[in-house]
TrEMBL record:
Name assigned to this protein: SMP-30/Gluconolactonase/LRE-like region domain-containing protein
TM spans (from-to): none
InterPro entries: 6-blade_b-propeller_TolB-like, NHL_repeat, TRIM-NHL_E3_ligases
PROSITE patterns xref list: NHL
SUPFAM superfamilies: NHL repeat
UniProt keyword terms in alphabetical order: Repeat
Classification lineage: unclassified sequences, metagenomes, ecological metagenomes
A Pfam family the protein falls into: NHL
Species of the source: marine metagenome
GO molecular function, one term: zinc ion binding
């Protein structure tokens, strides 16, 4: 049985400048600061423990503005990458909240994004973006140049039939996703993706070969109803936020 204890819980104070509505993504800097996406307030909050250090952003389409920010990643130089979801782009900031660069625009072509939902920084420095409505994972260089993607929209049944009938890759090329929403990586370099609409989590090795998937729609142990977020914890335990259960 896994034992869990809470060291600290905080909810921001009464003023509008520090309230959260709701938090939708977070990451820690190398110094241990918590960087939080404040979704409906269209801004980013940075905390040292339970103390708010700074806040930046507002609703809008200009650089430094957001429209429902979701996933956050922080690189080794403490640059902050934000999945600016409804603006269909990724924005990069320094730790002080100064805008550095923006890449992506609405679409399904190379370098385009459709509701980016989560971000992870690879050891190479490349940026991997989970696109909810393009049903794929797309890589970008540190300068924001698209390096390609994997995935297309498809159900578990379609994927199984494609394998069974050896469907040509130009017609259907797994992996298939149905509204993927989150990604994380374990200590061995394996990746885990919440394939929300297919009610499962998909595991890939460090070479992006699919190892396994687990979960199906339902309310029992091991089943999911639209898993929204996956996180790898101590000893590579997986924690899955199961939205509708």
């Amino acid at each position: 049985m896994l034992s869990i204890s809470f060291e600290n819980v905080f909810r921001s104070g009464d003023g509008e400048s520090v309230q959260l509505s709701p938090p939708s993504g977070f990451a820690f800097t190398p110094q241990g600061y918590l960087v939080l996406a404040d979704d409906f307030n269209h801004r980013i909050q940075i905390y040292d423990g339970d103390q708010l250090l700074r806040s930046f952003g507002e609703k809008g389409k200009e650089n430094g503005q957001f429209h429902y920010p979701k996933g956050i990643a922080v690189d080794a130089e403490e640059n902050i990458y934000v999945a600016d979801s409804w603006n269909h782009r990724v924005q990069k900031f320094d730790l002080l909240g100064n805008h550095q660069t923006t890449f992506g625009s609405c679409g399904e072509g190379k370098g385009e994004l459709n509701e980016p939902y989560d971000i992870i920084i690879e050891d190479s420095g490349n940026i991997l973006v989970v696109e909810r409505y393009n049903h794929r994972l797309q890589w970008f260089s540190p300068k924001g140049k698209s390096l390609g993607w994997i995935g297309q929209r498809g159900t578990v049944l379609e994927e199984h039939l494609a394998y069974f009938y050896e469907t040509s890759a130009n017609l259907f090329s797994p992996p298939a996703f149905e509204f993927p929403t989150s990604i994380d990586r374990d200590s061995q370099g394996n990746y885990y993706v919440t394939d929300s609409g297919n009610h499962r989590v998909v595991k890939f090795n460090k070479n992006w070969q699919r190892v396994l998937s687990f979960g199906e729609q339902g309310e029992e142990v091991g089943q999911f109803q639209y898993p929204l977020c996956v996180s790898v914890g101590q000893n590579d335990f997986l924690y899955v936020a199961d939205l509708n259960n």
